[in-house]
Design a protein that fits this description.
With 328 residues, this protein is α/β, with parallel strands linked by helices. It has ten helices and ten strands.
Length: 328
């Protein structure tokens, strides 16, 4: 049985999620990749327990994470039961629904039927009575937003989730949903957008909306699926995500122009005494506008490396200007 490191909170930074009472670690662990039925269970245990030892108290899932869909929740539920059960009250578990999960007209999108049914299934896979955060995973243009909001409100009032959030919503959609949720008396506390040096769309209005509505934020893909590391500087390694024909990072997406930018960014990171991955993580947290950064990993050492970026979060104006010049 795993025994938690008693000093796990000494080095992690925790921030309040918007105007809620919930504190999130600066780094959270995402189970989008490498926690499915085809992955090594012992490696999953090592990553999750190592993350917890580093003060990562937040573990992020979705109903369709796998493959097969649902298997990441099953594996995390097994690890919670076998390794982390004594620490449930120290752990934030989040899951989502919004993408296709089962056949037929009720297993996708944003209806009350789908969201409540999906969370019931997720709780069974996780072996938990409740999740801490439940997200609508993406906006649904065919379901009235009032219906989706009412379902989220019901989920909190039923005790199946403590807080609710949204992911992949535009600034305008987020503002509308936040206002509806507030009118129902169950505030929306968090947004989970894709954000990294190459994808900065949240700076064009969303961050302002989040501040106005007292919401926190947690970014996914902070390393652009591995592109913002030194992995691809000298070509595409055989065991890399791009080489395995991943739909999320393709060989066509690794252009000479992007690699040229990565090389220049890597030089700035080296001058800061960081790896490029560490600098990319620190960059996401600059200015305190993000509550947390969602790390993905295939082994525990990657989590340790990225959490070490907490040792140098500050940037000089010259560094930020140089990074912006490269990204332009």
């Amino acid at each position: 049985m795993y025994t938690a490191n008693e000093k796990r909170y000494d080095t992690m930074k925790y921030d309040r999620c918007g105007k809620s009472g919930l504190m999130l670690p600066a780094f959270s662990l995402g189970l989008w990749h490498n926690f499915g039925s085809a992955d090594n269970y012992d490696n999953m245990v090592d990553m999750i327990t190592s993350a917890f030892d580093l003060g990562i108290t937040h573990f992020d899932l979705a109903n369709n994470y796998g493959p097969y869909p649902g298997s990441a929740e099953e594996n995390f539920g097994k690890i919670m039961k076998n390794e982390l059960a004594p620490y449930r009250d120290e752990i934030i578990v989040s899951t989502k629904a919004g993408y296709g999960m089962w056949a037929g007209p009720y297993g996708d999108h944003g209806s009350r039927k789908y969201l409540i049914s999906s969370l019931d299934q997720s709780l069974k896979r996780l072996g938990l009575e409740y999740v801490d955060i439940f997200y609508h995973h993406r906006p649904d243009p065919d379901t009235p937003m009032e219906e989706t909001a009412a379902a989220l409100d019901h989920i909190v009032r039923s005790g199946k989730a403590l807080y609710v959030g949204v992911s992949n919503y535009s600034a305008e959609q987020t503002d509308k949903m936040a206002k509806i949720m507030r009118s129902l008396g169950t505030p929306l506390i968090i947004h989970q957008p894709r954000y990294n040096m190459f994808e900065r769309w949240i700076e064009d209005g969303l961050q302002d909306v989040l501040a106005e509505n007292g919401m926190g934020s947690i970014s996914f893909c902070p390393l652009a699926q591995g592109l913002l590391t030194n992995k691809y500087i000298n070509g595409i390694p055989e065991n890399s995500r791009a080489a395995k024909a991943s739909p999320f990072l393709t060989k066509d997406g690794i252009t000479p122009e992007k690699i040229e930018k990565v090389v220049k960014l890597n030089a700035i990171a080296e001058n800061r005494g960081q790896s490029l991955a560490q600098m990319a993580c620190a960059w996401n947290l600059r200015g305190g506008k993000l509550t947390s950064v969602l790390l993905g990993a295939s082994r525990a050492s990657q989590i340790t490396e990225n959490v070490a970026s907490l040792q140098k979060l500050d940037f000089t104006k010259d560094e930020l200007d140089a990074i912006d010049d490269i990204l332009k």
